[in-house]
Design a protein that fits this description.
Helix content: 25-40%
Strand content: over 45%
Structural class: alpha+beta
Order of helices and strands: HHEEHEEEE
Shape: globular
Number of strands: 6
Strand order of the largest sheet: 2-1-6-5-4-3
Low-confidence stretches: none
Number of domains: 1
Oligomer: single chain
Number of helices: 3
Radius of gyration: 15 Å
CATH class: Alpha Beta
Largest sheet: 6 strands, mixed
Length: 131
C-alpha cells in the first residue's frame, strides 16, 4: 500500500516527467522522447489520427509537426498498481502541414512504471467545442 506522502512524491515525479516530455516535444529532443515514451505507446491526436512512438518522434524530428506551445491546466493525477492516470485540459499551438493551429483540448495520459522508470503508454485528446 502506498502512503499519502509516497503518493504525493509519485505525483510530483509524474508532473516533472510530463513537463520534461512536453519540453522535448517542443524542442524536438528525440533522445528524451525515446526515453519517456513506451515502445508500444498509442498516441491519439484530437483529429483521430494515431501515432506510434516511431511515427510521432519522426514527425517531430523531420519538422512536419512542430509544437510551438503546450499549456496544461487543471491536471489531476491518480496512481494505481503501477499505472498513473493524468487528465486535464491543454491548449496546444502546433504547426502541421504548413498550417498553424490553436487547439483547446481535454486529455487523458497514462504512464506505466517499468523496470527503467515511468513510461508514457497512452495519450488521447478530445476537442473542447467553442462556447
Amino acid at each position: 500500500m502506498t502512503s499519502p506522502s509516497d503518493t504525493k512524491a509519485i505525483e510530483a515525479e509524474l508532473l516533472r516527467l510530463e513537463d520534461e516530455r512536453t519540453r522535448a516535444t517542443i524542442d524536438g529532443n528525440n533522445a528524451v522522447l525515446e526515453r519517456l515514451m513506451s515502445d508500444d505507446i498509442v498516441y491519439t491526436h484530437s483529429n483521430g489520427r494515431v501515432d506510434t512512438k516511431a511515427s510521432f518522434i519522426a514527425a517531430i524530428v523531420r519538422g512536419t509537426t512542430k509544437y510551438r506551445r503546450v499549456q496544461r491546466r487543471d491536471v489531476a493525477v491518480s496512481v494505481r498498481d503501477g499505472f498513473a492516470f493524468l487528465t486535464g485540459g491543454v491548449e496546444i499551438d502546433v504547426e502541421a502541414g504548413g498550417q498553424l493551429r490553436h487547439l483547446n483540448l481535454r486529455f487523458s495520459n497514462v504512464w506505466e512504471r517499468a523496470a527503467q522508470g515511468w513510461r508514457q503508454i497512452l495519450w488521447q485528446t478530445t476537442p473542447i467545442p467553442p462556447q
